[in-house]
């Protein structure tokens, strides 16, 4: 089918209105963020995989979440950087769909992981006596299968079937003529994506953490009546819940504007400026950049593991049993 592309410049890239200085600054800034995203999350992956002391159900969930952030930095952010700086998509329509499918899958996978971590913390703090029987390695494997398979099936199915664009007037012309890798969600799929992939799991997480902190307050009041060893374990679990609650809060803060815009855009006749949507997408991406920094700030064991990695000590197999916790943290 031949389309009149005169309105879109015959599919060629529009002249870039950014000066060389601005483009250079953007490349340097975003490349720095990509570097932190890739190597920060790679350090987390190596730490949890290598050190036996870190092999726990909670940490396996964090490991999988770090893999999600690593993949976003490695396979999504570099191409998005070129598109954002050059105001053009150079990689063809097929790779545009693959890129967007992975992008969508990884963002939904992240929030599903955060939900799983919230469930893990819920059992650890609210039902500590049942935790070891509920959060077994096989239970974690089932959670991880769910976290990866459902978003993957949804993202690739919706994008490659182009169901998301049904009923959008002129979308075929836009795809054939535009040079920007356009993806626009209609009202049905925009609402489905945002409700099932973001707002519902967000509400579940907020509810779970609300319950966790209510129980934590109750524990704090009863702290003097609890045996010392149980008391120290509860403090450790609460600290982990607090840290992961911060990770969850930061995720919601970074991704809410983007998902909210996807939800509203079809009802506003797709009038959201592309530069705004691009900026909100990057705001979401930077969540994957900040996650290893949050871990580094709140987890002394991660800082210690990172030191061993940078010193090359992990090449000695006996370091797998190294103690990463100080006496204070163990208590």
Automatic annotation (TrEMBL):
Gene3D superfamilies from the UniProt entry: Rhodopsin 7-helix transmembrane proteins
SMART domains: 7TM_GPCR_Srsx
GO biological processes: G protein-coupled receptor signaling pathway
Main localization, broad class: membrane
Localization: Cell membrane
Domain of life: Eukaryota
Transmembrane segments: 25-48, 60-82, 102-123, 143-165, 188-209, 243-262, 282-302
Residue span, G-protein coupled receptors family 1 profile domain: 40-295
Matches recorded under SUPFAM superfamilies: Family A G protein-coupled receptor-like
Pfam family, one: 7tm_1
Membrane topology: Multi-pass membrane protein
GO terms under cellular component: plasma membrane
Keywords, ordered alphabetically: Cell membrane, Disulfide bond, G-protein coupled receptor, Glycoprotein, Membrane, Receptor, Transducer, Transmembrane, Transmembrane helix
One term of GO molecular function: trace-amine receptor activity
PANTHER family according to UniProt: HISTAMINE RECEPTOR-RELATED G-PROTEIN COUPLED RECEPTOR (PTHR24249), TRACE AMINE-ASSOCIATED RECEPTOR 2 (PTHR24249:SF413)
Protein family according to the UniProt entry: Belongs to the G-protein coupled receptor 1 family.
Name under which the protein is recorded: Trace amine associated receptor 2
């Amino acid at each position: 089918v031949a389309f009149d592309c005169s309105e879109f410049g015959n599919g060629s890239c529009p002249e870039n209105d950014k000066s060389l200085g601005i483009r250079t600054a953007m490349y340097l800034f975003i490349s720095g963020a990509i570097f932190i995203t890739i190597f920060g999350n790679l350090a987390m992956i190596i730490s949890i995989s290598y050190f036996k002391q870190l092999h726990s159900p909670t940490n396996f969930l964090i490991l999988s979440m770090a893999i999600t952030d690593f993949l976003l930095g490695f396979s999504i952010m570099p191409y998005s950087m070129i598109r954002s700086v050059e105001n053009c998509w150079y990689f063809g329509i097929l790779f545009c769909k693959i890129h967007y499918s992975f992008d969508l899958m990884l963002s939904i996978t992240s929030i599903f992981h955060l939900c799983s971590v919230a469930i893990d913390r819920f059992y650890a703090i609210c039902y500590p006596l049942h935790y070891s029987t509920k959060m077994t390695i096989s239970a974690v494997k089932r959670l991880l299968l769910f976290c990866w398979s459902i978003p993957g099936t949804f993202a690739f199915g919706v994008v490659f079937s182009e169901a998301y664009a049904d009923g959008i007037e002129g979308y075929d012309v836009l795809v054939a003529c535009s040079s920007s890798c356009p993806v626009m969600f209609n009202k049905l799929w925009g609402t489905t994506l945002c409700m099932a992939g973001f707002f519902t799991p967000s509400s579940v997480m907020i509810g779970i953490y609300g319950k966790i902190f209510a129980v934590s307050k109750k524990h704090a009041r009863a702290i003097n009546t609890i045996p010392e060893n149980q008391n120290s374990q509860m403090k450790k679990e609460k600290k982990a819940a607090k840290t992961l609650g911060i990770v969850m809060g930061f995720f919601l803060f970074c991704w809410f504007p983007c998902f909210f815009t996807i939800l509203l855009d079809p009802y506003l006749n797709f009038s959201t400026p592309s530069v705004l949507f691009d900026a909100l997408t990057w705001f979401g991406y930077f969540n994957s950049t900040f996650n290893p920094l949050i871990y580094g700030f709140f987890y002394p064991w991660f800082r210690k593991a990172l030191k061993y990695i940078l010193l090359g000590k992990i090449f000695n197999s006996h370091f797998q049993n190294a103690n990463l916790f100080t006496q204070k943290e163990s208590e």
